[in-house]
Amino acid sequence: MNLKNQMRSVIQWENPRDFQLFYKFTDRGDELKNASKLILQPGQGCIFTYEGKVEGVFEEEGIHDLKTSNKPFWTTIKKFMNAFESEHKTGIWFYRRSDMLNIRWGTRIPITYNDPVYGFPVNLRGFGNYSIRITEPKNFFLNILAGKLDYFVDELQEVFLSRITQPISNYLATAKFSYAEIDSNIELIAKEAQSTSVQIFEDLGFKLLDFRIEGTSFDQETNQRIGEISNVQADVKAANIAGVDFAELQKLKAMRDAAKNEGVAGATMGMFAGMNMGNTMGQQQEQKQPEKIDVRSKLKELKELFEDDLISEEEFQAKKQQLLDQM
Length: 327
Description:
Blueprint: H1 3-6, E1 10-12, E2 20-24, E3 36-40, E4 44-50, E5 53-58, E6 62-66, H2 72-78, E7 90-96, E8 100-106, E9 111-114, E10 121-134, H3 137-145, E11 150-152, H4 153-175, H5 186-204, E12 206-218, H6 220-242, H7 246-260, H8 264-284, H9 295-307, H10 313-325
Parallel strand pairs: 1-3
Antiparallel strand pairs: 2-7, 2-11, 3-6, 4-5, 4-7, 8-10, 9-10, 10-12
Helix pairs in contact: 4-5, 7-8, 9-10
């Protein structure tokens, strides 16, 4: 270590980076002049280590004296035979005391729980933001930082997300919110998630100031299954409005779909489905007098279908006899 580095007398954290929680001062070396000055800006703190031990945590803004056993000139001379190295090593880690706001979060894997209404597992994802403030820097420094040069919020997010997923899953399983109730209960879920997360952050040396859920989404498989159920429910409601049961509604839909098909098979199926449906619906209606059928017109239509090769001779004769029996 050269004499110039040992003469360093003013130390400060210049140009902190966005979302940077800890920063080790290294650009001037680790041998400091006795009574060097440490300058802390508003919202900054500092952990000072000396000869491998934490000697002080500085939190008040302003100028602080750092006292060591290093006297630059004499230390350099005495350590000449040891490549100018001194055992009086210091370490200075700056940390951010100001609030860290709007830190983004999002579930890496879906939160799975059983939907209480539909009775099958659903996969839910969420995203939002939270705000924190470091309250126990020494605890975090000793147990998590472990001498790293830098520590950013995204590293803390990995720790947070790995611990928060299971508590939220347990809460959703207990709360019994169905698929359609999630959005209307986002604030309640966020409040519970914050309550669950407080201790997680305290154990790390942080205070959780707020926690927000901005949006949720279900996976494609869940949406597809719910969509199929919703379609059936809509059909049942439509059947009730139309005055028919669900089975009859399905027959009507089958007749409509068959009529849209192209080709001989589609035309034949549509004709017979229409006739059968007409007979079925006619039997269900309570009428004092049976509806009169224009047999002559039906016979002409039947003959045209036969002449156009849309039905076989056997089908023609069978349906013809059926119409004649109705006269």
